[in-house]
Amino acid sequence: MRRRLGTKAMSAFLAAAMTVSMFPVQALANDEEPVAQVDADGWVLQRQSTDTNVELQEGWIVPDEDGNGVTIDYGKIVNDTGNEGWVVFDSDEPKYKDSSLEYDITFSESTQGDWIAVAPATRVTDGKNYEGFAITNGTGLERTGRKDGSESYAGIDNLLGLKFEYDKTYHIRMETIGSNITVYVTRDGKEEKLTSFDSPIGLEESTYGFRIWRGGKKITLDNIERTEIVTSDLDRDVEQIEADRWGTEDISVPIRFGNGDSVVSVYNGDHELILDQDYAISDNMLVLKKEYLAAQGGNFRLQVNFEKGSTAALWVMKIDLSEQEEYIWTPDQGIDMWTQMEGNGTFELQEDGMRVTGRNVLVNELAPMAVNGEIEVTFEFLDDDWERDQKNHGIGTLFRADQTAGTWQSLAVDGYVSSTPIWKFINSDGITADFALDGDVLMSRDGVKDFKIKQRFENDSITLWMDDQVVHSQGINKAESVPGNMGIILNGDLGDILVKKVVFRQLNPLQEETGERQTTSISNDDLTVNLDQDFPRVADYELNGKTMNGSEIRYNYVTINSVNMPATAEITEQTSDSVTYHVIPDSEQSGVTFDVVFRVLEEQTVEMLITDIHEPEGELVNSIGLPKQPLISANSAQAGAKLDASWVSKPVNGWGIRDLHETIADKDISTTAPFAVAIPIITTDELSASMFNNVYLDGDEFVYGAFNLPDGEMSAGFWNNEFMYRGLDGEKVLP
């Protein structure tokens, strides 16, 4: 029996609606003549939401003679009791938390048409506590369960579009690890993933069974096989080593062992590493020897195999912070580099692009391997049927894809509310997280203008652009920082697009300036602003002997059309109350230049302007900014340091204004996932400050984030989001 072990489990809470036939609790129908209780080899029957066993009657639950199957006559149970809604489980089975459960299952003798209305449960304690997935009607699937009698259910993906039918036998396998349940179906001798989801029920050691409802039917099981999964794992999936340290020292990664487990082997591809020569296991640590590391030319993937059957992967990556790999795909290169990881759709080369139709999870094998990166997709919608678009084409970007493990992450459209796309984080385990209910309507522009969507994935942070304008930026705690390939995704069956260009870019962290800080000052109306001499950046503000911080960490970068690039600057003009910088981005990345002016106005106000934007021929500026350079901030060592903001929440069930309040000394603000807001405020016991701008991004005008300081303290502050300089029509929005 095949297993796919070592799956990381994460939490997701979904909401949907389902119609359930509920009936009043009734006593068993009284027979004229009592019938002796039937022995069913440990199988137990309880009403849903109760924990009381019901005496079994002849023909209700009939185990096979070989002990490896059972037939449940739900129609007879309903007829004899007058009640619907039952939970059936095998009380004699060992109790496992994590398990692999498989069997052949046949549904027969329906009294409710095509309705199956059966929920295989991989964990059952009693009728009040169970969790699994429900087969409803047609291709409908739901996650379902109860905890202490309280029911939870929601729709989940049917990745195969499979319709379960009566009088057919299906072989299904359910793998339950932590909160994640993945279901496989074998068709034509091939095991395929039917669905994967996160269950919010969270039961511990349990047996298995079913919840059954809605009309008469028989459920027949055969070839039941159930084994415990003991999960061991590594503490992290990636070890990044700077090029100048490669092979100079051993590296150690903590191991989380399951009960009684141990490491049996470590492989690099087909090559098995030698214990105590290439690696060692010591004090629950995997120690990779520096000599083995030095013998490897670059990135490699280790697979650690554990005695109890689980596996763990460790990517060891050599990083050169001075280089950033990029690959641009265009149709003239063909499509041999594109590989379908999942989906029943098609992709083919046409004269002016790659046509992608139906569900496709596509990896480009020439794209750089990346933990953090950017993907820009230029495409045209070929389907202009708005009703079909509403059902979900699922356009999005694919990242951190591991073809060996069959895992991937994505940001994709997952339906619409009216004309507004619902963007969600989605991964290969079926786990989703809301990202934004925002962005332009995704339908054909009839050849007038192509769409361009871009996604940046950095640690647990995701940012989305459409047509070079920011849509939203936020952290996704379900986004795992693991290396992988990049690609595109159509996660709906009705997608039909023509892909014309895709840019894949490896993303290195911004490099901090470390030299001695040299500042210059401007002032007016008792307010002094100290700015860096080498870049347009505020160091701090002084007012009546009190101080408000600007940027404590220095990054000499600019953002042009959503791409961060190094830049230099020089002061070209200065007066007592103003200073002008001329900014020159890296010439290999852009020919654009511009000025930044700081001016101290009356009433303790500072104005910052981006002016005199020079665009070389063929390079128009759609958006421009100065990334991760707070204009106001405070740190955890300052008394009363607080960060407050208002932001536009954009959930599926309606927009609204939300406030957030952070005490910086608590050090709870993310250093990896900047968040976009509308109103920013920084306060200390000495001063308070806020900002206004003309970024025009519908509630995402400012970004806040935190930075670790060398002394162990944390700085947190706000900076401007990217300014929209031109709109979709190419006309300037700002003067």
UniProtKB/TrEMBL annotation:
Any one GO molecular-function label of the UniProt entry: carbohydrate binding
Where does the Carbohydrate binding X2 domain start and stop, copy by copy?
Answer: 247-314
- On whether Signal is a keyword of this UniProt record, the answer is yes
Is Signal one of the keywords? yes
Q: Which protein is depicted? A: 3-keto-disaccharide hydrolase domain-containing protein
Annotated organism of origin = Candidatus Mediterraneibacter faecigallinarum
List, in alphabetical order, the GO biological process terms annotated in this UniProt record: cellulose catabolic process
Q: Where is the Galactose mutarotase-like fold domain?
A: 522-728
InterPro entries assigned = Carbo-bd_X2, Gal_mutarotas_3, GH-type_carb-bd, Ig-like_fold
**Signal sequence annotation:** 1-29
Q: Which UniProt keywords apply?
A: Carbohydrate metabolism, Cellulose degradation, Polysaccharide degradation, Signal
